[in-house]
Design brief:
63% of the residues lie in helices and 3% in strands. The chain has 488 residues and is mainly α. Strand 1 and strand 2 form a beta hairpin. The longest helix is centred in the last third of the chain and has 46 residues, at 430-475. The protein binds zinc ion (ZN). It holds the Pfam family GAF.
Amino acid sequence: MLSQTEPLDDSGWTIKNVLSLPIVNKKEEIVGVATFYNRKDGKPFDDHDENLMEALTQFLGWSALNTDTYDKMNKLENRKDIAQDMVLYHVKCRNDEIQNVLNTRQVYDCEPWECEEEDLLDILKKDLPPLIKKFEIYEFRFSDFNCTELELVKCGIQMYYEVGVVKKFQIPQEVLVRFMYSVSKGYRKITYHNWRHGFNVGQTMFTLLTTGHLKRYYTDLEVMAMITAGFLHDIDHRGTNNLYQVKSGNPLAKLHGSSILERHHLEFGKFLLSDESLNIYQNLNRRQVDHVIHLTDIAIIATDLALYFKKRTMFQKIVDLSKTYEEEKKWVDFMSLETTRKEIVMAMMMTACDLSAITKPWEVQSKVALSVAAEFWEQGDLERTVLEQQPIPMMDRNKAAELPKLQCGFIDFVCTFVYKEFSRFHPQIQPMLDGILNNRKEWNAKKEEYEAKLKAIEEEKAAKEAAKAAKAGANNPTGGGSKTCSVC
Ligand SMILES: [Zn+2]
């Protein structure tokens, strides 16, 4: 403490006594000094003042830390915005790319945004519908093998016209084209979970709704949400599963507690839709947007196979219930108002779409199964090299010969239920069940072939050993030698 006799400045203020205390934050770091001058009663500061001020400076320390944290959060927020901007730049359909679908430069010598909706429709009407026919988009047996990725984008766009939602919900056509193109670019170029898979799931959803007659329970708004959810459901997939995200400590696993990748696909999808130039829902009202987003949430999360087993019985009960109605119209009227039941059917439809490769004609299924397996083996390689762990047989390329056996198990314990129940629900979905049953036969034949081969090898080995033993016995007629020692 010090005292001063002369005033400090013209105001005549003099320092009589001082109490100075460090400001310490929660991390025990000194972040400042608090100084108090001149007690009101003129007396020097005492122990009581010191205690009081110490408590006060503690608060100052905490608030300093809060300010620090706030600054850091602001910085992080800015970093996130910059990263998102960079992602969007690379994912979003560019002005030169949109010309691959909407060639306004060639036809009208102008950009899409300079055209009337009618003019854009004229271009799309000429180009897209023939593709739907050519590639059998309405068929459960559809295969993308002969399509380019751009043709898949075009077919995806046309589906919105086929179900009549473009006009009804006033989707700006340039936005629709940009959205679908960007979704295709949002998929990574990986072995299986790429844009082709994303498209196939959207196409199966479309076919279940139309050819499979499931559309009758849903409004046009819901149909649009379900098809979009199909296209978006695996966007930005990394070719590794949820467990791998956890084991490798991926930030995604720290962000999401369950259904890790599915939540990411959902967030990525909503992130694309948050950009006005990609927002196909921009002319819906608030209530409609909320409903579409609600359904998208349920549909995409439902593709987590871990959740599938929980909803099986619920779905089966709905199918059972449908069989108690004699009049179809009464059942449809009843179902159309049953929000929860409709959501359960929709969730199961997503599973049916996601697994639909297992129902395709054998030439398609056998190839697709191999690409699924190849992606699993790539994860197995990562587990061995990066995590230094032994992969499970399904992901172990050294056990590739077991694929037919694994496929049979997958068909029996996971897939068959879905297509059996859907075919029971709506007979129009029977082609999917026929497909899976045929593939079960094919995989089983391969499995038996492999087992027979193994058996033959075993028998040959046993025969050789027996011959060897017999020879040893002949050379040693007294037979006193050891059975295991070849020297005796
Ligand atoms: Zn998928």
